[in-house]
Amino acid sequence: xxxxxxxxxxxxxxxxxxxxxxxxxxxxxxxxxxxxxxxxxxxxxxxxxxxxxxxxxxxxxxxxxxxxxxxxxxxxxxxxxxxxxxxxxxxxxxxxxxxxxxxxxxxxxxxxxxxxxxxxxxxxxxxxxxxxxxxxxxxxxxxxxxxxxxxxxxxxxxxxxxxxxxxxxxxxxxxxxxxxxxxxxxxxxxxxxxxxxxxxxxxxxxxxxxxxxxxxxxxxxxxxxxxxxxxxxxxxxxxxxxxxxxxxxxxxxxxxxxxxxxxxxxxxxxxxxxxxxxxxxxxxxxxxxxxxxxxxxxxxxxxxxxxxxxxxxxxxxxxxxxxxxxxxxxxxxxxxxxxxxxxxxxxxxxxxxxxxxxxxxxxxxxxxxxxxxxxxxxxxxxxxxxxxx
Length: 389
What we know:
- The protein has 389 residues and is α/β, with parallel strands linked by helices.
- The chain has a single domain (55-385), classed as Aldolase class I (TIM Barrel, Alpha-Beta Barrel).
- The chain contains 15 helices and 12 strands.
- The chain has a 6-stranded parallel sheet. A 4-stranded mixed sheet has the order 8-1-9-10, covered by helices on one side. The protein has a two-stranded antiparallel sheet with strand order 11-12.
- Strand 11 and strand 12 (382-385) form a beta hairpin.
- The two termini are 36 Å apart.
């Protein structure tokens, strides 16, 4: 047992975890309410070690946002624009193919693609870019669309959610993203994302996808107007669906970014809160194999610390991220693979390159050579730095 737990009021939670007893909602709330970060961290790290041992994963991927035009006006969102906006954008299929080709030259295994609910793009546009991107490389995994996008596409195609997902899967969709979960509590959801899908609708899209034998991730946006009880309820609903379908491959807590939106928040998430959130998530979500420390929202240094608080994944290289940065994130736009491996090794963990489904592709021993650093310049041209770290 970690020394921090010997005389802690949370000692009994360690006893539960060590005996394989599932934590209750009240247990999770106690962890969040505790100011004893050492004890909370010890619980998260203990649960992590039992799941994955001394390994931390990352993925070599690229983000593509096909458009930021959106018919919704979520209060917390700094990304969406109306068609009259001067800084709105919309990518053609050829634009997306070019970005994908550049990223494939860097060795990516996944494209992560989301966008706003575009007011007039036809359903064939979405099928078209999936088919075009999959044609570049059959092994390229396409992780695309939030639940609200799927509902929008079902409306566009005049089909059920199930039939829409089946058609998208046939066109090349490999996995759903977990974005858009926000907070499930109805009153909070109405305050931060009025008009967005309900919690039940979010969960049902993922349930339908899982029942097709497919996988997805899920998220929680924390640190705005929600209570700790709301967070616990959010995790409970995710754990319940995972008990039912076993279709979630990972959970990604997302710290709220406070700039450039309509939602007034006095105190955005602190590092202290973020580390507790990672630890509670790991200890409570016992049926999830992986918890991701999202370096874009946390910053890489805090994400490294999160690896000793329950997280076992740093997400990906990303290359070009808009949503968090338009909301004020000051982290870099990308991380090279070499930087990801270095960050993991600095924490004493074994770095593992994974695929979309968190399955290992390559395990880097301490003596293995770090891959060459590669990056995309602002004008899209590839540069290679052949010096190894």
